[in-house]
Structures are given as structure tokens and as C-alpha cells.
Amino acid sequence: MECFVPLNDDIDAKDLQGIKDSHQLRQFILFDENLKLFIHWPITKERILVLQSFKIWINDTKILESNDLSYFDKMENPGKEKGNENYFLYQLKQNICKDLIFRSSVVMNNGYNNLIKIQFNYNYRNSTDSKKSKLNNNKNEIEEEEEEDDNDEDEDEDEDENKDEDDEQDYLPSFEPVNLWNDNRHKHNPRTDNGSRQYLFSSTSLSHIPPQTPSDISNPDLNEDFVNFTSSYLNIEFPIYSLLSMRLRNNSIKSLLCIYSSLDFQISKSALQLNEEFLNSEEFKLIFNKLDYQLLDNSNTSTPSHITINPICPLSLPFEVSENDSFSLGYKLPLFTSSSTIPLSQPPLSYSNLNISNLPSNNVTSTSNQLNSQHRIRVTLNYSFVSASLPNTLIPISTCWETDVTLKRNTTSSNRFRTLSQTSSLIYSVPKFGNLPITNSSTSLLQNSSMNNASNNNLNRFLNVKFKFLNNNIKVTKGKRFILRLQIINLSNSALDLVIYYNNNTNNQLTNGISSPINANGSINKPLSLDKQYQFHKKFSNLIEGIILKSNDFKLPLINSNESYFVDLNFIGIISGYYSSLNGLKVLDLQSNEMFEIGNNVSVLVQ
Predict the structure, then answer these.
(1) Which of 71, 113, 336, 360 is the S-S candidate for 366 at Cβ 3.0 to 4.6 Å?
(2) What is the β-pairing status of strands 230-241 and 29-30?
(3) Residues 6 or more apart whose Cβ sits within 8 Å of residue 502
(4) For the Trafficking protein particle complex II-specific subunit 65 IgD1 domain, which residue ranges apply (predicted)?
């Protein structure tokens, strides 16, 4: 028995040699690809095959299991037409991969090693072996009969004497005759759905198939030849990869009575691992032929309907996605506000290719609890994988999923409350070194508190501003310049006038407040001795002074609202060591004189 998973999707099922050659080319499986799977065995007159189980595993999860051929379609036998070798060929049904195998999330796109295993367990027996065994048994019986004839004369003399004893031993009333053949036959040929047992020979297929016609069943007299079966199995393993990282973001725009839904996708880390291991790091690309974003109507489950929505910015198909590409497609959906009725026949916005009047009802009443469950969408992506390492090979992939449109929770008010509660404290903490909190002296607590309370009105300026280092974990050489790229996204309602500086002076940060009696959490600490203060100063001074910002006091251009800006910061590492953060790297808002720490999420190893 053989199993083939050809690499080419357009392979002809009648071309057995082409299927074998394409199977030799396959080294991996792509998640959601249009997978073809064939099982094959030659037709012989003296062979029987009985399928026990068919299983598909992904990692340690069993995805599919069957003990019959209900998941397979029988292909035509081309050997009868061409006069060549006859064989049986079954193909896995096309909807099995889409609906059962790949309808799971056990394959992740994080670059981990994922395996898919296809396993067949079956029993087989050659009839020639059983016939030889039967002839040997008959020969032994004849020899035994001859020996018995020679001993008949001697036994006749003692027959009368032992007659009574033999009669008692011939019959045991507490036992019944046992037919071993019947038990073995029923054991290796389980019942079908209709209760009948099938004994499958070379002219039939594996067991557990639908009832055959009388012409398909072999001579029942020969069934007794197949008593002892040999168990065997067939396992095929391939690494499996997911090529895309996808996400769906939804935000409500109440002023326009709409929901902005963004579909984001890019090449996954798993695809990069595939390229390194099997494609010799050559260029590959994904060609998208179809991308549908559909709004579903599940109010009538008997006849569900859907409407295709076009993206806000038109997208021409087909298009290609390479290794460093990232796409974000925006869509508009109607927003149903709480305790309101919106006529769907007259929407407040014109949605691209969205005819809302086709929905079953003309009015929809929603409540606040139903706001996030008003819409259900289906996303479909059809694309093909093309690589220079696989010439003349196009692997089609179809990804489809359904999800509810859930709105992002508004956290502005909670963030504002959290910020006010933190700044209202009398404790003003400066950057920490390791696990040691260093606070200002108790004499300046009231002054720092008044400064914080005065700046409460300006703290909201940085709530909607994002600072992100694109390379936040790097390894550099001592004495050589290195660059950290900072991305600034201004989502606030006002422009930003910023200055970036790095204060690595340890005098003020280490000597002030080391002997503070009040900790950052409000507990009282014992004052530190001068010896302890000097040890801390010597220990942490290297962590701050080991890296220097060359472009200190760097003035950025004005960043308007809803704009993004990239800036390259030039550093030099002068002391070897690992810096888990760059404490003291800050931005200053010249309009509000507010400072913001941005170096806590940067780690640098200086060698």
C-alpha cells in the first residue's frame, strides 16, 4: 500500500507515474492549501487488504479519524484501458481538507516546528501462503491416517476392555463444540453498516466500503483460505507552515455612525523559516486572486444571505505580496447605536457595493448589549505560493473564516483616572535602577507634589501618543556608532513640538534621595549609610554612563495630529555590558514642559 501527496495541484488522477514524481518533489505542506492525497495498491489475484484505521495528526492533535473509505473517492482504473498494471487508486475528497483538516488553529505562524502526520493501519494476507499451509496440513493428515491403520490391529485387542472408559471421555456435557475458523473470520472481517460481512479480495477494495454488486465479490469458497492476517501500517510526515499573519481591527466612529474595520495581513515568521530551510533563501511571493469581505445575515438560518463590501480604497486584483510587504484594507460598516432604530433602507452613509435594502428586515432595533453582536463577517483570501526554487509550480491556497465584529473598548476615561490617581500621590519617583527604588528627599515632597498636580491638565497630551523603537533589542560593538530608530505616532488632537535628550549624569540621580525615609509604595525605609550610598553610586554609574547619545537635545520638527514620524538616534557604547534599559532617555514637550520616559523598553548589549 502506498500513499502519495503530489506537489502539483493540477495533476491528473489517471497519471500514476506523474503522481509519484510530484510526490517526490514535496518536502512540506502549506496550511489551507488545496491538498490532494491518493492511496494506491496493485491488483493481484492472491492478495487481500483490510483497512483498520485512517488518521491525520497535526502536532499532538488528532484532526481526522476514520475506519472506512467514506472520506475517499474511487478513481477510474486506467490499467484496464491501457493494458498495463492494474491497481486501485482512491483520492481524498476535495472538501475534507477545507472543512475538516484545516479548520483548526493548531498550526501557528510563529515559526515553531509544526508537523502533519498521515497514518494508515491495515491488515493483509497472501492467499498462496494459506493454500500452501492447507496442502501441508492435508499431507500431514494423510500420513497420520496411514499410521493409524497400522495400529488398528493392536488397538482392536484392547478395544473391548476400554470401551466403557472411552464412552465416558468422548462427551463432556458441560462444553459445546467450538469452531475456530468462524471466530477468526469474524475477527478480521468486521460488520458493515447493514450488518453483513464482506471478505475483500483483489477485485474489491479495502474493508468497510458500501455493499458491492455480486460481480465484485470473489468466490466465497476461497474465503476460508484467509485466516491469519499480518498487521502493517504506513506513516507519512511533513512539516506544515502558515504563510500569513492576519488580524481584524474594528473601531466605531459615532460621529459618522459607522464602524471602521481594518483587515491587516503580512508574511508570517513561519514563511521566513520555510524559505530558509527548503527554498535556499530565494525570493518567493504570494499572488492574491481573490479577497472578499462579506457581511453575513444570520437572522434567517434556513436561507442565510451575505453582501460583499468593497474596501474604502479600491484594490486591483491580482496583486503580489513579497517578504517585506504589509497590507491594511479598510472597510465601512453601519453602526447601530444603543436604544435606537436605524432604517436600513436609508443608511446614513454610502457604503461601497453595500445594498442594505436587500437584507430581510427594514428596521433593526439594538440595545447596548447587542452593539458588538450586530455584525458577523466572512473573510476569504485566495492566493498562490510561487518560489524560484520550485519552477513551474503554483501552490493554490484558500483561507476563509467567520467572526463577529467586536468593538475596541474605550479606555480613555480609565487611563485618565489611573493617571490622576497616580500623580495625586505625594511620592515622586525618579527612574529606578534594578530593584532599588530611588526617591527624592523628604524636604522636596510637597514641591514635587505641587508640580505634578499643576501638570495634571497636560498629562493627557501623551495618552494618545505612541513611542516605539523598531530595533529595541540589539547587539553592538564598543566604540562604534549604532542607530536606534524611533517611531512616533501622534493620535492626539494637537501638534507635538518635541525635543529628545539623554540625561546620563549620575550625580543628581544617585545622590538625591538615596536616604529617603519614604519608599515609592509609601513604606518607611531605614536611612542608608554613606558607605552604602557610595556602593550604589559605583554600581549603577556604569549602567548609565556606558552609552552616550551623540545627537543629544535633538529638536524634532512639528508633528501634526494623526501623523507618524521616524527619527534615527545615534549612540555610542563606551563601556561593555548589558543594558536592560536606557533610563534617562526622554522626550520633552516644549509647549507643556512635560517629559516622557521612552528608554525603558530598549535593551543593548555592548561587546
Answers:
(1) 336
(2) parallel
(3) 548, 549, 552, 582, 584, 585, 586, 599
(4) 2-150
Above 60 in pLDDT, residue 366? Answer: no
Mean pLDDT computed over every residue of the chain: 69
Long-range contacts of 76-82 (CB under 8 A, 24+ apart): 76/13, 76/14, 77/43, 78/14, 78/16, 79/43
Which fold does the domain 429-440+461-516+527-606 belong to in CATH?
Immunoglobulin-like (2.60.40)
**Mean pLDDT, rounded, for 266-273:** 86
Q: For 243-404, CATH number?
A: 2.60.40
Give the chain's end-to-end CA distance (angstroms, integer): 58
Strand-pairing partners, residue 115, are 239
Residue 577 banded pLDDT, cuts 50, 70, 90? confident
How high is the pLDDT of residue 445? 39
Residues 403 and 436: beta-carbon distance below 8 Å: no
Q: What residue ranges of the chain are covered by domains with CATH 2.60.40.10?
A: 429-440+461-516+527-606
Please choose, from the candidates 143, 1, 138, 132, the residue with its C-alpha nearest in 3D space to the C-alpha of residue 72.
1
Question: For the sheet containing 547-549, what is the strand order?
Answer: 465-469, 481-490, 563-573, 547-549
Please give the model's pTM, rounded to 2 decimal places: 0.50
Q: Which residue has the higher pLDDT, 339 or 33?
A: 33
